[in-house]
Amino acid sequence: MRPLQGTMKVGSEGHLWVGGCDTTQLAQKYGTPLFVYDEAYLRERIREFHAAFKATGVSYEVAYAAKAFCTIAMCQLADQEGCALDVVSGGELYTALQAGVDPGRIHMHGNNKTRAELEYAVSSGVSVIVVDNFAEFALLNDVATTFRRQVDVLLRIAPGVEAHTHEYISTGQQDSKFGFDLESGQARRALEVVGDYDALRCRGLHSHIGSQIFDSQGFEAAISRLAELYAYGTSLGLVFDVLNVGGGFGIRYTEEDDPAPIASSIQGIVHKVKDSFAALSLEMPSIWIEPGRSVVGPAAVTLYTAGSQKAIPGVRNYVSIDGGMTDNPRLALYGAKYEAMLANRASDEAAEAWSIAGKCCESGDMVIWDAPLPRPQMGDVVAVFDTGAYNYSMASNYNRIPRPAVVFVRDGRSGIVVERETYEDVVRLDRPLSYDEENAAASSAMTAR
Ligand SMILES: Cc1ncc(COP(=O)(O)O)c(C=O)c1O
Which domains does the chain have, with CATH numbers? Predict the structure, then answer.
């Protein structure tokens, strides 16, 4: 059996338990598909980041990357645990503010922030805006001037390092839609012009080099390059105090994944910043990070009900569930791998490989290929692990399937943090066909002319 993390365990009756709750009872009470988040484990994950930084004695900030799972309850929890929040859209900013998060603890990202989003961020008083490209300088400066605000900014740099799992590559001229490219000189140019924008105060640099990163080598390679750029910025007279190295800390989805412990990744990052900055006679910056997946990914399990089956002799066994790419598009999007068990028969031997198929009209709507499972029966509760990140936040209404409910569990109690959508919700914004008469009148006047 796979290792069970957080408060998960298998009870003596053979059921999967999380947060002191029997998942089969949760499935009955709330219906399926259902996202179940282990609240204690969420808090533990965040505390690991804080403890790792505190052990090094440096100034730091952990900003939870809300894109991984952005709901009011999650923003509140991250805030209670001393995280700042990284948001990338007006909708995420609205969610964080609705959660009562102090705007002074919110960072705003995005490669194409609209004027309306920048106005919302500036008027709300967010802590920093991460400027992504040259066009944004003038736009943001104009917005800040209109609101008579001085806005703190970081510059997002594409440092020419890409990291995924245990590998990182230097990509030379980095082909990415995000950030000022280092290799081509864009990043230096950005530092040269940022001082021209009176309403902006540049506090430092930001980079995010990838996802599912299993050790600190990629971060370290990026930090060397960023340190030199930081030195260039200070040589221009800019007063910097922040180096944000982004998120991307990896998690174990399957036995193929072997992420380094959070503490050792943070130690690697901190040592590298200390060494690189000392070598350039720079003052130590505050080190900021933006973990998303590593906070929420392993803290949730999705419960589904098993339905129809199809065994193709000598080819494959399929079991279909009552969700799929509408609540977890990650296999369809990038071949992501997961592990599963039957939550109501967690002690039964995994006899065969069963591929877990979604219910959408798409052959690619699969959640797991060839999961070792006991032969599923209709009505079994299928638990898919590590679904806390980029699942609910990427959920859709494809095939007009209502989005699932989300519950948090803790100490034997469960609470809904997102209601299950209803069919009424699915059509809530639809309108019967009718035309705008005012426009019709104007247009026939034009035709008559
Ligand atoms: C700028 C930035 N910061 C943080 C993150 C969070 O990454 P992860 O969830 O892998 O930690 C992302 C993810 O795309 C990102 O683009």
Answer: 9-38+297-427 (2.40.37.10), 39-296 (3.20.20.10)
Give dist(CA 371, CA 363) in Å, integer: 17
Ligand 1 atom closest to Cα of 390?
Answer: 9
As for ligand 1, residues whose beta carbon falls within 6 Å of it are 65, 67-68, 86, 109, 208, 211, 246-249, 290-294, 389
Cβ atoms of 325 and 403 closer than 8 Å: no
Q: Alpha helices of 299-436 — where are they, by DSSP H?
A: 330-334, 423-427
Residues 386-425: tens digit of each pLDDT? 999 999 999 999 999 999 999 999 999 999 999 999 999 9
- Given a cut of 50, the residues of the chain with pLDDT beneath it are none
Name the 3-class secondary structure at 413.
Answer: strand
pLDDT of amino acid 427? 98
To test the pocket of ligand 1, the residue of 290, 293, 394 to mutate (highest count of ligand atoms within 8 Å of its CB) is: 290
- pTM for this predicted structure: 0.96
pLDDT of amino acid 162: 86
The letter for the amino acid at 32 is T
